[in-house]
Specification:
Elements lengths: L5 H17 L25 H17 L10 H22 L15 H11 L5 H7 L2 H12 L1 H4 L6 H15 L9 H7 L3 H11 L4 H7 L5 H20 L4 H4 L7 H10 L7 H15 L7 H17 L4 H8 L2 H11 L4 H12 L4 H10 L13 H22 L9 H4 L7 E2 L6 E2 L2 H11 L19 E2 L6 H17 L1 H14 L7 E8 L6 E8 L9 E10 L2 E11 H13 L10 E5 L6
Helix pairs in contact: 2-3, 2-4, 4-8, 6-8, 6-11, 8-12, 9-10, 12-15, 14-16, 15-16, 15-17, 16-19, 17-20, 18-19, 20-21, 25-26
Pfam families: zf-MYND (PF01753)
GO molecular function, one term: zinc ion binding
Keywords: Metal-binding, Zinc, Zinc-finger
Length: 598
Amino acid sequence: MPVRSIAELSDRDVLRRLGETLRLSTTYAYLRLDPFALDSEHWSLRSLQVRHAISNLESLQGVMGFRDQEEGLIVPDIDRCVRSIWPTLVLWIDFLHPVHHVGTERMERVPLQALCDILNELFRTDTPAFQLCKETPRLYELLFLLWLRLDEYVTPGTDVYHCLSYLAHTVDRSMYVVPKRSFMTEIAKAQPFSDRVQAVAGYYKAPHCIPAALAAVGHRPHKLYRKMLVQARLLADAIATLRSDKLLEKISEPFIPISEFVTLQLVMHRYPKDIVCGFVDLIHYLRDMPGGRGNGPARMLCSILSSIWATCDDGRSLAWSLRAGVLPIMIALDAKKSDDILVAHALHIVTRKAYHVRVLREFLKGGEALSFVGATFKGPNTLASYDNEIRRRVNLLQRWSQEKCLYTKCHSNIDAVPVAVRRCPCFSAAYCSKECQRADWASHKPNCVNGVHTVEIGTHDILSLYPGDLSPQDAHFIAFYVRTWTHTHAQTLLQSVIRAQEITPSGSKPHKYNVQVNVGELPVGYDFWILELPRDRQDDSWLTFSATVTRPQGMALVQVMVLPLTALRARAGKSVAEGYPVQGYALEHEFHPMRATE
């Protein structure tokens, strides 16, 4: 056996003696007292007993830091000691907690940093102490009261960055009953389906985490995120004053718990405007820090925002962010570090949400300023195609908002004056007022939803929304978009029909062709498949058009219209005559020769 160095032997001797001390029943004697059983004079935090207890607490935190030394030589002694003082240790953390002292002169004597340090040690997931934490709901409550309300407890002598970073690490570990790394493989398999990812995370969630977080803010979820934003601002101010290069390397990590809450812990489908815009303002603040020191946290906040956008069901959170100027700053961050996946993913979410009417209106207001030019998450040609497609949608949105009133005797039709209209639920009619809708009802009724003409296949042009979380406004615009898109790309669609007829054994028989246009992806493409019609139904083939978008609750499907193949051929012929390529464009994602119906 090789002879150990004198220094190493010395270290082991010190640890052995420390272990012997930890085994004594008198060690940390003051932490074995019940602080709430002491006289009221001890609440001043000036008494000898309280000061010794604080000293014991700081010593315990330091000793727990020796766990990893000398192959865990004193780990059993540390765990045995912590278990023996656990009931009163929790009481002392509660007694010293600033929630009991804020607003008083005692606040200056609260050992804020020591509390953050000891909680960080206790919630280490690889220790028996963590098992005790999981069985102590009050400790979760004290942790979240400290993290979410630290801004209320700060005194001139507080090391804000140290406290917030330690608390963030502790909160991050407290969210699950096992280390998150142990089930990351399951999360990877569940992606990209957000509901499946949340189901996996939900299985491992700590049962006391969310109740404790909500209890700290009066059980109001919106206030919870407002308090997180307050702590994020406090952290950003602390980052601006950091001088240590070692600390600057990890300044993004304290923002991770916020991301975890938004994506997995407490997912909401609508966030208040002040929270969304507050995160955008904070990104601006961090991005403007000298020397680029705030770029890392700014990228993390972009990721947090992208999670908020992804779960929003009507696009309002992204619309508010665009109005607050988030797109140019994300492009600048992306260009600064082209291999950063956080900002790239956030920019990708913007392209996927560009079917919301609210979002397109912000691009309409922004004009040329809202462009993807300069970003690096995709090639220049792809970025240019994104810009072109969004401009087309913006132009289409303007047309959509200025359709003519269907009532022929309306003054807007007589005077040829464009007016804003609202669509009937069937989407085949639009009116400028309720009066015009009532006046035209007799003629429109047969073509409306459940009208006599809508039961015959091929004679209706109706919007029907499959159950989901897509707003009616967005569904109507998507249907209008698909109708226009079909009109434009009729020749490409006809080429899909011809290919299908060539490879299908019953190609000469009437068929039903299903076309699913993926509006949520740029550039827009479609899936195509065939269903054979019963012989007694029709003599002509038909195409059923629908639109799909990825939603927080999964895939939403908008059934748009049914079109006879003869009509598609006629439109395709006109398109070719107007210069559309005979071979069409490569827009088809997937071809299914046959797909069974339900």
